[in-house]
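Quick review question:
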């Protein structure tokens, strides 16, 4: 990895602290062109022009080649990056907290996040899609660089939201096509779709087994056979994703999140979050800064 770090000094109270630069756009030809902290502090948007990159994502071997788009979340389970000799890509890195705090629609954000955590590589239909993505990169980077703008912070946040809308628009057909295929798929695929649709309020294996007209024991066996993960573990993973997304939305208070997820009390919600995140909701938000 590159030894280059992208930091800016900010005032916090009476102290000056270094924070990751919010937007970075760069050309990448080899592993060393990426900053050393890219996987920790940044969401990675990669438009591959030529060659390929192989990697392990959530312990599965995957690759992205010329004409495809790749998205990695900050702090993803990512390993074993290998770039081909002729690799050429444009990469846009967006600082973790800045992107998460500017998601314009939480429901769409959750759906897109769940999809991308399973399918980080996305095929592009034509040159128009590639041009749209590259233009989107350039517009966000240009707004970030325009520090003389009188309404700089407001304009940058609006551009960040527009960037997200444009990316969702580019891949909306893929999201919807995948959802339709799951609705008519195998029991395991239907189970995964049911979790996406219901895990905001339903966190028991028996609920999903009832929807599929099978026993909870059989559902666990199907899940374990197809993915190596039990049904209860999948439910917890999807629920965790939604809780994290909502806690990152500063417009929602903790009581509202607890109510929306159907918890009988805030204290019960706090204990549940502590169990799956290792922090209480308040502690988690404090860690976000």
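Suggested answer, residue by residue:
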């Amino acid at each position: 990895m590159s030894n280059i770090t992208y930091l800016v000094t900010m005032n916090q109270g009476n102290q000056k602290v270094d924070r990751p630069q919010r937007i970075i756009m760069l050309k990448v030809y080899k592993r060393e062109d990426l900053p050393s902290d890219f996987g920790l502090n940044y969401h990675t948007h990669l438009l591959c022009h030529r060659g390929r990159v192989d990697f392990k994502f959530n312990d599965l071997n995957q690759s992205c080649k010329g004409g495809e788009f790749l998205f990695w979340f900050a702090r993803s389970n990512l390993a074993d990056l290998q770039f081909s000799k002729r690799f050429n890509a444009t990469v846009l890195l967006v600082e973790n907290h800045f992107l998460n705090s500017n998601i314009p629609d939480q429901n769409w954000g959750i759906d897109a996040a769940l999809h991308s955590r399973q399918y980080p590589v996305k095929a592009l239909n034509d040159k128009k899609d590639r041009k749209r993505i590259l233009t989107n990169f350039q517009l966000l980077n240009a707004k970030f660089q325009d520090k003389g703008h009188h309404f700089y912070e407001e304009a940058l946040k609006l551009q960040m939201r527009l960037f997200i809308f444009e990316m969702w628009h580019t891949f909306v057909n893929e999201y919807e096509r995948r959802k339709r295929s799951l609705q008519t798929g195998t029991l395991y695929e239907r189970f995964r779709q049911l979790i996406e649709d219901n895990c905001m309020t339903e966190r028991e294996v028996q609920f999903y087994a009832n929807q599929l007209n099978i026993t909870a024991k059989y559902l666990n066996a199907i899940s374990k056979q197809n993915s190596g993960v039990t049904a209860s573990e999948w439910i917890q993973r999807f629920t965790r994703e939604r809780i994290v997304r909502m806690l990152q939305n500063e417009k929602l208070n903790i009581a509202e999140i607890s109510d929306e997820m159907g918890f009988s009390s805030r204290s019960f919600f706090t204990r549940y979050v502590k169990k799956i995140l290792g922090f209480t909701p308040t502690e988690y938000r404090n860690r976000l800064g």
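Why it works: DSSP finds twelve helices and ten strands in the chain. The chain has two domains: 7-181, 185-288.
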